[in-house]
Design brief:
Oligomer: single chain
Number of strands: 11
Helix content: 25-40%
CATH class of the largest domain: Mainly Beta
Order of helices and strands: HEEEEEEEEEEEHH
Strand content: 25-35%
CATH topology of the largest domain: Immunoglobulin-like
Distance between the termini: 21 Å
Radius of gyration: 23 Å
CATH superfamily of the largest domain: Immunoglobulins
Largest sheet: 7 strands, mixed
Structural class: alpha+beta
CATH architecture of the largest domain: Sandwich
Number of domains: 2
Length: about 190
Amino acid sequence: GFYANLLLTQTPEHILTITNSKTEIVCELKKEHTGVYWYRWSQERQRFEFLVFFNKLGKATYGTNVSQDRFSVHEARSHSSYSMHISHLHPSDNGTYYCSISQSSQLFLGSGTRLSVVDALPLPPKTTQTPVSKKPVPSITKSKAASRKGACSPLVWIPLAAGVLLLLLGLVPTACHLYRLRRRLWLRIHRQ
């Protein structure tokens, strides 16, 4: 975990986008390497999927059933930064994407980028403005003010807080599973 972050940095942490759009994940490398591997952890299929290996000479090797039209890797700043572009996104692309490098027969993973592809982005509820009136404004008691619906209405913040809590709780099993997978991979490499 910690040592990997000294070798490579991956951004962004989370991407929420709509179907048929495109996105980019950036991997900054701080050590010598032979190339960059890209993997996807699929929560739905409960497995790591190899996407592409991009070597220092600019040659890409793709995984089984990975579309070269949709997935491409670009290099920037003389072998120190690579970005993976994914186009024509659809919900089957959902998952956590990892860039990775191989060092001394060990595989080091980036921090991961969680990609969520949805048919429509969630929008905040619309607030209606009351037209300005020239009539005298009646005084508002505390009980009337409390019943007004606005930006701080419980109708807004309760579902928002619940959604954030559910998202965080959903990340716990994934993090535990990835830790176990990373540990198994590390043990397997060291047994050889």
